[in-house]
Amino acid sequence: MPVLRLGIVGCDTSHVVEFSKRLLHRDIAQEQWVDGATVVAAWPGASAIAADRLPGFVAQLRAYGVRVVDRPEEFLTGGGGCDAVLVEAQEGGLHRGLAIPFLEAGMPVFIDKPFACSMADAAAMVETAARRGVPLLSASSLRFAREVTGLRIGPVLGAHAFAPAALHPRNPGLFHYYAKRLHLRFHAETQAFEAGPVRGQIMARVVEPELARDPERKGFGVLIRVRTGSEPFTGRVLTRSA
């Protein structure tokens, strides 16, 4: 089976190491291995969010045999050796500029969270991918976790989800770690930020239109933001017994 060769764009997140472990089958249990793709190159970039951690992540990639390049454009050259890219820079405002050259070149792109920090940036990337007929994906791995996909339960009435939710001015408002919300994918989903205007806006823009469009979506999800202390990703499903 052909192996997809991946290039990483931006290395200021632990995701570049964690993804590489699974794709390269290094330093992780075999049950976590991901087949069908490999990481061949990475462009570190700069970072206004985790500059102190960037060198360590790059060093780990080098130890895994990943080639570190000086410019992301090298992935597009004949000798770049990449079939698709993972845009991993933490700052969502950079994603449009990093992703669109690859989309225009016909290269599939995965964009880590947050997808973008503005509607204009998000729309530009989606439009470019659609016009060029190129795959574009952004998602949390949590939605594919075995603890979620393996659920075998009756009709879902709703859910409570708990997750850490650090804030950072480079990804303002809800766009930073909060964007890594637990993807339980229930009948409808809301992100309850705090009591007050923001929560009301989310309820009005997300939940009510969904229920109006499809009345059979009878559930809702609520994410509780934990701003202090240590809280793992956890969730509770509200269901009706069969």
Task: Explain what the structure shows.
The chain has 242 residues and is an alpha/beta fold. The chain folds into two domains: 4-138, 3-Layer(aba) Sandwich (Rossmann fold), CATH 3.40.50; 145-239, no CATH class. Helices cover 27% and strands 19% of the residues. The chain has six helices and nine strands; from the N terminus they run βαβαββαβαβαβαββ. The chain has helices at 15-24, 54-63, 95-104, 119-132, 146-149, 197-213; strands at 4-9, 37-43, 67-68, 84-87, 109-111, 136-137, 156-164, 220-226, 234-239. The strands form two sheets. A six-stranded parallel sheet has the order 3-2-1-4-5-6, sandwiched between helices. Helix 6 links the parallel strand 7 (156-164) and strand 8. Helix 3 runs parallel beside helix 4 (119-132). The chain is globular, with a radius of gyration of 19 Å.
Essential attributes:
single chain; 242 residues; alpha/beta; Rossmann fold; six-stranded parallel β-sheet; three-stranded mixed β-sheet; 6 helices; 9 strands; 19% strand
Low-pLDDT runs of 5+ residues are: 179-196
User: What is the fold named in CATH at topology level of the largest domain?
Assistant: Rossmann fold
The general outline is globular
Under CATH at level 1, the class of the largest domain stands as Alpha Beta
Largest β-sheet summary: 6 strands, parallel
Helix content: 25-40%
What's the name of the CATH homologous superfamily of the largest domain?
A: NAD(P)-binding Rossmann-like Domain
CATH architecture of the largest domain: 3-Layer(aba) Sandwich
User: How many E-type strands?
Assistant: 9
Topology as H/E string?
EHEHEEHEHEHEHEE
> Hey, roughly how much beta strand do the residues contain?
15-25%
Give the overall average pLDDT.
78
Count of domain modules: 2
Q: What is the C-alpha radius of gyration, as a whole number of Å?
A: 19 Å
Major sheet: order of its strands?
A: 3-2-1-4-5-6
The end-to-end distance, rounded to whole angstroms, is 42 Å
